[in-house]
Amino acid sequence: MSLSLVLLVTMAVLYACGVYLLLEKSMTRVLLGFLLVGNATNLLILSMTGVAGGAPIADGDGAAATTDPLPQALGLTAIVITFGVSAFLLALIYRSWKLGRPDEVAVDEADVAVRTEGVPEEEIDGDTRAGDSEFADETGGADAVPGGADSDAPSPEEAPR
Amino acid sequence: MIALLLFFALGGVLAPVLVRALGRSAFAVLALIPTAAFVHAAAQLPAVVGGGAVTERVPWIPALDVAISLRLDGLSTVMALIVAGVGALVLLYCARYFAPDAAALGRFAGVLTAFAGAMYGLVVADDMFVLFMFWEATSVLSYLLIAHLAAKATSRRAALQALIVTTLGGLVMFVGLILLRVETGTSSLAGVVDAHPTGPVASVAAVLIVVGVASKSALVPFHFWLPAAMAAPTPVSAYLHAAAMVKVGVYLALRLTPGLGDAVGWRESLLVLGLVTMLLGGLTALRHSDLKLVLAHGTVSQLGFLTAMAVVDTPIAALGAVALLLSHALFKSTLFLTVGVIDHDHGTRDLRKLSGLGRARPVLAVTAALAVLSMAGLPPTLGFVAKETVLTGLIEGSHDDGALVAVLVLVVAGSALTLAYGLRFLWGAFARKPGVAECRVPSRPNPLFVAPPVLLAASGLVLGPLASLIDPVLARAAADANAEGAPDYHLALWHGLEPALGLSALTLVLGVALFALIGRRTREAPGESLAPRLYGGAMHGVDVVAARVTGATQRGSLPFYLAVILVVTVGAVGAALVAAAGQGVISPEIRLADAGIGWAQAGVSVLMIVAAIAAARAQKRFPAVVFVGVTGTGMTALFALQGAPDLALTQLLVETVTLVAIVLVLRRLPARLGDRNGSAYPVARAIIGVAVGVLMAVVAVVAAGARTASPISVDWADLAVTFGHGENVVNVALVDLRGWDTMGELSVLIAAATGVASLVFVRTREDRTSRPGRREQRAALRERRAAAAAAPGWEPGRSAWLLAGRTLGERNRSILLEVVVRLVFHALVVFSVYLLFAGHNAPGGGFAGGLVVGLALAGRYLAGGRDELAAAAPFDAGRVLGLGMIFAAGTAAVPLFLGVDALTSTWFEAEIPVLGHLEFVTSTFFDVGVYLVVIGLALDVLRSLGAEVDRQYEEVGS
Questions:
Q1: What average pLDDT does the segment A18-24 reach?
Q2: Which residue, B116, B289, B620, B804, could crosslink B87 as a Cys pair with Cβ 3.0–4.6 Å?
């Protein structure tokens, strides 16, 4: 199937401008770039319908030359999703602004910290400390004698937990 | 056996519930499960001793010929008895070991029960991969058990270390198992033994499996995780680190020796590693002051001993190894449980702080002494019988193989060390030491608490004189662990004045002397040895490499990542395209434009191109937004020209709503774009942009050239009419033919709407602007009118165009806008409903209809502010979204109940007076769902980015 050169060139320019904007730091420009790339993609889908023709309405008048409805269905979905995502981007821009950040994609400080600081030195120890009792907190030392293992244990029947 | 495994799993799951109901006594109930496994294994003894094996098999992964095949032969039965028996006693012991109010007891009980199940599964599994699965399960569960005291950093670190070491070994072993599977063509352990593989592949497999064995059974150089794992509660140490988990390496060594014995490397490596471990562990045990660590290093030593004996090539040694395995399980868990009692009742495990305990707790002291006797291989215990057998095996074997003499010497040395640290343990725990305050007797010793160790020690004692009772079973197990079959030797306490007895006497003398010389030193615990330092270094190295790699690749800059992704895309896809072009796959057909509409297309395109470039170069926000809007509107024209009215309609509406939303946000931001940082790397960005543009153009050409088959949508026109009962093919495709796509899209929209709302509202989505009900509204209106009527300049009969119009400041009001909105709002809503229902046969549909409502609401908001929006849409956007999704999902689900596929549609038609012939297709419900979701999205956008932003702005302003 053949492609319309006009649509092709327009699509390429929209992609180029969109990507140029997407790579910006300014979040508003990123949004605009996203919109342009969205439009470009819709053009790509549109060019896949092939030769222009009548609307795909099957009203029985026998018009053979309707356009391919499948790319249209996909395109319709794409348009609305682009809207949803740009609304989300807008909210992100607003939120970022509200938090006192300039309108830009900030550099992730945690990532930079990994690069500049490396791994914090960690103490490596093997064995448990000698005589480190599991019950030290309860008994308070070697000579303390608790009331026996079962002194404070209720029988199973009266131990609701 | 499978039923037992299910019981274990069930017990593990239900344990938390049981603990909640019964408290710590739930452990006693849980102990019934391993008891059942014990009884089951014991019941199979007659059949097993006769040389048979009980098998069960359930297909699991037939494609790989892996089945859950379980097999209870002599060796497995002995292991199962140990695992289940000690497991039951340890669970019983737990019922009194923990404080009644101990934290996370439910989880602990569940994990411990599941662990016992995994152990049981491991020893009865016949399939190597099922065994591996249980092997790894024990690693993971032991991680959870060691880290039980999760608040302690040592616990967590020890658990992680044990996990890393054992799973690393497990992975290496897995490779070995796969090699074995490939080499022998079977994944059955019995099959591998029968195949008896030799040769280079078998040797590589053997060495890889040795790594697994060594890591699990704590052999040098992986031995260090076991002492560290003593951070676990003592019952865990008794079960995992004495009786069960650490034994699986020995078990596997015994299991595979008849098969892999002739593969070069198997016996040699295990023998060397085992003996080195035995000596090193024994020496280290003599230097520790924590009773538990004495035992832990002693266990390491014993495991080395066991592994070495497992691969000695004589039937008598195999019998000795199995007997040792059993006696070790009995005496070592006794000793650990004894330490647990001491720790529990006296608050320390440090032998420098304990004194006079032997007199205070004679039962405990005798119990421990019996266990030490067995450990040291002194009569009349099972340990003695086992060690005599091992020594006899070595002596007999040394007639054929001179190297065994060296082994014999090392074993005697190791045994002397064992006796020495055994005495150190007894002395440390129970002796009276000058200068140390004596421990007092606990007021009420608990029989249930002390019973498990007493029982275990007693069986070690009784089985010595009665060794002939268990001889048939252990001989059968030895036959399974040895290529030459059952030994010509029987376990007995007294074999006469044999060379082995002399060696035992020698061991006794040496051991006592060693203890007398160095056994009572109480210096500080030794520092770290080489292996754990290597482990620490390796872990640190991994951290450093991870940080370097992360630092090198994660620059933290989003544009950088994006650029990398795009460059890679261009490079990879471009390369593929060039390669395809080289093969002449691409046959592009390009026409200049479409006939008849070519000029229009060209005109619109030029406009779009100019606008796009202008948008990319714009320095201010609003012009940039408008330029982008021009490209969007151009899209509308192109859609319309191409014959896609639905797309044109939707694009136009979306463009308008998007513009409104952008303006709503941008009015709060500074006018200039990126005035802080300017634009970085414009040339590089332009190059990437152009490259992507060109690439996409080529992709489009290639994709179009590849479309040679007739499209799937050829039949859609007919399908739409016959199936979907609609004439608008695109709409029928959306709501019917490809309804699942739309369902997915609705989910995306709901997620986006929720995201927008939560980003702006932060805490609650609810619109908190004053939203009076109709009645209150009217009352308020009357009040205001009355107030206004009292004011000067009031003209009676003049009312506001909008409900909330008066809440706006005068400067912000536009009467013209109010009038227009007032006039068109209801018309727009009616129009949207028309679009919704007409969409099935003509351009329109749920998307377009919903967007029209969104526009109408936007008009109300722009004209009257946030109060007006609240009055126009007095409902929650989230509910609208949810209702829409219910409609859509309902349309999908209801047909299922009617016995047809999801999303199947049907239609009704009727003659209705006045309206005439009407048709209703059920997929319209789906479109109603779409309509509602789009309205919800638009409402969320307006409410969040409009009304709430206003409110926050006013708050800051006031």
A1: 92
A2: B116
Contact yes or no for B444 and A150 at CB 8 A: yes
Whether the CB of A63 is below 8 Å from some CB of chain B: the reply is no
Rg (C-alpha) for chain A, rounded Å, is: 34
Give residue-wise pLDDT tens across range B87-119.
999 999 898 888 888 888 999 999 999 999 999
The predicted-structure confidence for B239-269, as pLDDT tens digits, reads as follows 888 778 889 999 999 999 999 988 888 999 9
Looking at the domain assignment, is residue A22 inside a domain? Answer: yes
Mutate to test the interface with A, among B25, B535, B591, B605 (most CBs of A within 10 A): B605
Selecting from A83, A108, A144 the residue whose C-beta is nearest the C-beta of B347 gives A144
Q: Is residue A14 part of a domain?
A: yes
Residue A122 is assigned to a structural domain of this protein: no
> What are the DSSP calls for B89-115, one per residue?
HHHHHHHHHS-TT-TTHHHHHHHHHHH
Two tokens, residue A31: 């949004």
| β-bridge partners, B591 | A4
pLDDT, averaged across chain A: 74
Q: Do B658 and A35 touch (CB under 8 A)?
A: yes
Which of B528, B665, B841 is closest, CB to CB, to A90? Answer: B665
A22 near B CB under 8 A: yes
Contacts of B670 in chain A (CB under 8 A): 103
Does the residue A39 lie in any domain? Answer: yes
Evaluate whether B114 touches B9 at the Cβ level (below 8 Å): yes
Domain membership of residue A11 as a residue range: 5-51+69-117
> What local confidence, expressed as pLDDT, does residue A132 receive?
59
Substitution target from B18, B105, B145, B631 for chain A, most A beta carbons within 10 A: B631
- Chain position carrying tokens 């098969």: B259
Chain A neighbors of B639, CB-CB under 8 A: 46, 75
Ranked by mean pLDDT, the top range of B438-452, B465-479, B798-812 is B465-479
Q: How far apart are CA B579 and CA B571, in angstroms?
A: 12
For residue B443, is pLDDT > 70? no
Q: Quote the CA–CA distance of B370 and B454 in Å, as a whole number.
A: 9
| CB-CB contact of B28 with B91 (8 Å) | yes
Q: Is the ipTM beyond the 0.95 threshold?
A: no
Place of tokens 């297709």: B921
Q: What is the pTM of this model?
A: 0.68
Element (H, E) at B68: strand B66-72
Give chain A's domain count. 1
d(CA B166, CA B249): 11
A65-69, B170-174, B386-390, B578-582 — most confident range? B170-174
Is pLDDT of B546 > 50?
Answer: yes
Helix (H, G, I), strand (E, B) or coil at B58: strand
Where are the domains positioned within chain B? Answer: 278-523, 526-552, 727-789+812-958
Would you say B636 and A76 are in contact if contact means Cβ atoms under 8 Å apart?
Answer: no
Q: Indicate whether A144 pLDDT > 50.
A: no
Distance (Å) from the alpha carbon of A106 to chain B's nearest alpha carbon: 7
